[in-house]
Amino acid sequence: MTRKSVLGEVREVQLAVELIGLGARLQFLEAAVALSRERLIRLYKELKGVSPPKGLLPFSTDWYMTWLANIHSSMFYNIYRFMLDEADESELPALIKAYRLYTEQVGSQGGEVVLDFTRAETMVRFFDSDMLQLSTCCRCGGHFVAHAHDNKNGYVCVLCRPPSRAGKARKPKVAEVRRGGLISVGPVLDIGGAV
After folding, report:
1. Which residues partner with 136 through β-bridges?
2. Based on the structure, what is the number of domains in the chain?
3. Residue 154 main-chain phi, psi, to 5 deg
4. How far is Cα of residue 6 from the mean position of the Cα atoms in its chain?
5. In this structure, what CATH number is given to the domain that contains residue 113?
6. Which of 42, 52, 82, 173 has its CA 20 to 30 A from that of 153?
7. pTM of the predicted structure, to 2 decimals
8. Residue 20: CA atoms inside 13 Å, Cβ hemisphere, count?
9. Rounded Cα–Cα distance for residues 138 and 148 (Å)
10. Contact 132, 148 (CB under 8 A)
11. What is the per-residue pLDDT for 56?
12. pLDDT for residue 145
């Protein structure tokens, strides 16, 4: 019979709290933390006030190739690689620190975080499984997320060659509404019924 260290268990709980705070899903918590599923669920409910989300984890590499997702994914993964290679972090601490730096950087620029923790962790697994690679842009020299085994020669990133509609917000639909002989023009609110 093995005896659990109290300090070891406290470290596992602290790690679970940190990961839950970052948005880790229960499936990842079970793999990363040496606590029972029941304890993780109770901890999640205590911290978030709700049960952990159910459902499948992301499984497609295509999400990372869209314009905005590729920019954010590339920024995160370059930070993650720096943490592994230059800061000599092991994988889980590098993942946590890289995700924190990514969210801080996006927030400091007034942007919206596009890459949630689950997608960041899944992307790291895709790189480990040789499903994704970093390709160097021939124009700016930046390193960007790309499908593995894609031709790296002449690669142009999404910043140097953005799609034609990139960064353009959709305009709200405008409709005329007739009420008592008056015509009003304004945004359409779909409330499920006729006006």
Report:
1. 143
2. 2
3. 75, 20
4. 33
5. 1.10.10
6. 82
7. 0.79
8. 24
9. 17
10. yes
11. 79
12. 97
pLDDT at 165 (0 to 100): 77
Quote the CA–CA distance of 129 and 102 in Å, as a whole number.
23
**Per-residue pLDDT, 171:** 55
* Count of residues making up the chain: 195
User: Quick check: 121 and 95 in contact, CB under 8 A?
Assistant: yes
Domain membership of residue 33 (yes or no) is: yes
| Cα dihedral 34, 39, 41, 47 sign | negative
Range of the domain at 68: 62-147
Q: What is the radius of gyration, based on Cα positions, of the chain?
A: 22
Residue for token pair 């709290």: 17
Q: What angle do CA 142, 169, 159 make, to 5 degrees?
A: 10
* Residue set of the binding site for Zn(2+): 137, 140, 157, 160
pLDDT of 2: 55
- Tell whether 68 and 116 lie within a shared domain: yes
Low-confidence stretches of the chain (pLDDT beneath 70)? 1-3, 167-195
Is residue 154 a part of any domain in this protein?
A: no
Residues annotated in the binding site, as ranges?
Answer: 137, 140, 157, 160
